[in-house]
Amino acid sequence: MTKVLEVKPAIVQSADVLTIKDLKAYYVNDLFGVRREVRAVDGISLTVRRNEVYGIAGESSSGKTSLIKTLAGAIRPPMRVVDGSVNFTFGNTKIDVYAEPEKMKTARWQNLSYIMQGSMSVLNPVRRIKHAFDDFAYRHMGLDRQAFRQRVQSHLQKLGLDPNVLEAFPHQLSGGMRQRVTIALATVCEPEFIIADEPTTALDVLVQQDVLGLLKEVQGRLGSSVVFVTHDMSVHAAITDRLAIMYAGRLAEEGPTQAMFDNPQHPYTAHLIASLPRIGDLSIRKSLAGKPPSLANPPSGCRFHPRCPIAVDRCSKEVPEMLPSAIGGRVACFRAGEVSVK
Ligand SMILES: Nc1ncnc2c1ncn2[C@@H]1O[C@H](COP(=O)(O)OP(=O)(O)OP(=O)(O)O)[C@@H](O)[C@H]1O
């Protein structure tokens, strides 16, 4: 049995809120006249539905953070979107992120919010917590000061936080508390779309469970969509409805989370699941041979083929497309379904 955190998944509904089509985003550097491209996001298509938690998993450097920065329209040089599109639908408003950057600016905080890695980056260490709410949320809510403060206090209470945290400095709170405050900050405007990048990585497992429970509860109450990024598969098992696995800038597999854990179709998914600790199993977990490839010079064909235990000749020559999988998702593998989790 796989040891996972226990947080109940939400009901999945169907309208698409985010549609990404054949997205390519590269880091482009010119060094002494030599152009170097790191293909961090390389031909990704996916949709995220209303009221679902969509997970993105993959080893370090697989492109997870680059993908979510790209979808939030939060890219800076040397990163460039070289092809493809990102579209959001918020109520009746449609936004093409790269054709309509002004619309996207307005949507930020109101319709879309971002919980980043490490809560201290959004909470100024020398200012009280209340100022973070003033700085980020006040102008988006159209309330007078008093009504705004009341709204913030009642939101904190709904999340089980004492409104007195508003008077605290970040360093006076524990790591878990700070992350709860960050979730409160990201959700006070009741956004339809929340991006969470490794929000619980630095926390111990019990606090992590608490913070994940909170995020799930707010998501369920608001009916928001969440894109949740972490390399930790046990967290995906606990919180996500659907899961995408990234390998070397591309999607390897996507599908309903539970079905992927029960019956992974891609050998890389099977490897990630097999590396999780299991209750009562004292055997040493086998790691995959080799390292993730350089995205400046990725392998030909399927990028996973040099490390794949079941690769055949074709895998080094042809790029596998993402095609419907046997478990109601999509998979990019010529030998899909021929692996099992041992
Ligand atoms: N500013 C940059 N310039 C050049 N390459 C970059 C830059 N930022 C990231 N990269 C490269 O892009 C690739 C993808 O990185 P990214 O941070 O998106 O991966 P990740 O899956 O989020 O990793 P992690 O789990 O470690 O955060 C990596 O090869 C990384 O070295």
Automatic annotation (TrEMBL):
Entry annotated with the keyword Nucleotide-binding: yes
GO molecular function annotations of the record: ATP binding; ATP hydrolysis activity
Protein name per UniProt: ABC transporter
Every ABC transporter domain range: 26-273
Bilayer topology annotation: Peripheral membrane protein
A Pfam family assignment: oligo_HPY
Gene3D superfamilies xref list: P-loop containing nucleotide triphosphate hydrolases (3.40.50.300)
Compartment(s) where it occurs, according to its Swiss-Prot or TrEMBL record: Cell inner membrane
This protein's UniProt keywords: ATP-binding, Nucleotide-binding, Transport
Membrane-traversing stretches: none
PROSITE patterns, per the entry: ABC_TRANSPORTER_1, ABC_TRANSPORTER_2
